[in-house]
UniProtKB/TrEMBL annotation:
Keywords on record: Endonuclease, Hydrolase, Nuclease, Zinc
Pfam families (alphabetical): Lactamase_B_2
Any one GO MF annotation of this record: 3'-tRNA processing endoribonuclease activity
Signal peptide: none
Residue ranges annotated for the Metallo-beta-lactamase domain, each copy included: 5-183
Record protein name field: Ribonuclease Z
CDD domains for the chain: arylsulfatase_AtsA-like_MBL-fold
Domain of life where this protein originates: Bacteria
Gene behind this protein: rnz
Length: 236
């Protein structure tokens, strides 16, 4: 997938791990080798998004001047419908990332199906409300083994959702498929997938996947998952 094929970006919040890749997607996408984006690159996000992009334009001014490619648009949204075109409806809703306000999750509706993306959040009733009836829920998760927990690790965990808490979220939504993303493993976990899933089972009995790069999910009458090919085991 070339970056030039992406012309719309929805930000949950403005932490660096969620924004550091913007210049590459935005600027590389304007080049022939990057897919040569033919329309404006547009970003939706919480308050502060427009200011961030103004500074980003300044940071890359020399590059933009050389390419004559400063055309982008930024939309600072509130909770509610932030995009509705060609049958695709995107709804932003507030989540609880503690001191980071506002922080958003998103629900994408299309042809009677829906996907919910939690963004960074603690256990949050508002997310549950907006995610009711979703086919797929993609939720963040954070975990640390008890023997390595410290005050600093506890402070990080307090910004996120534990596997047990995520299970409670899934139990109330009952999606066809739950997927972990933005996986924060503090201090390292042996057999991380097994650990996360085992802890989730304490509060949720449905299907949960631990997301990974190139995992593909197709939503129709059923939810179909295509796992990424492991080249080491593919024989190629």
């Amino acid at each position: 997938m070339l970056p030039g094929s992406v012309d719309k970006l929805f930000l949950t919040h403005l932490h660096s791990d969620h924004t550091i890749g913007i210049p590459d997607v935005w600027l590389t996408g304007s080049l022939p080798t990057g897919g040569k984006r033919e329309q404006a690159f547009k970003i939706w996000g919480p308050k502060g998004t427009e200011k961030m992009m103004v500074h980003m334009n300044k940071a890359y001014k020399a590059d933009l001047d050389a390419r004559d490619d400063s055309g982008n648009g930024n939309v600072e949204g509130e909770e509610g419908i932030v995009y509705n075109k060609k049958g695709i409806e995107v709804i932003a809703f507030k989540v609880d990332h503690k001191s980071i306000e506002p922080a958003f999750g998103y629900r994408v509706n299309y042809k009677g199906h829906s996907v919910v993306i939690s963004g960074d959040t603690r256990y949050n009733e508002n997310l549950i409300k907006f995610a009711k009836g979703a086919d797929v829920v993609i939720h963040e998760v954070a975990a640390a083994k008890p023997d390595i927990q410290s005050e600093s690790i506890a402070n990080i965990l307090d910004l996120h959702t534990t596997p047990e808490e995520a299970g409670k979220v899934f139990s109330q939504i009952q999606p066809k498929l739950a997927v972990y993303s933005h996986i924060v493993l503090l201090g390292g976990l042996t057999e991380e997938k097994a650990d996360l899933l085992e802890r989730t089972k304490k509060t949720y009995e449905g299907t949960v996947l631990v997301g990974e790069d190139l995992l593909s999910i197709e939503i129709g009458g059923e939810v179909q998952v295509q796992q990424p090919v492991n080249e080491a085991n593919s024989g190629s």
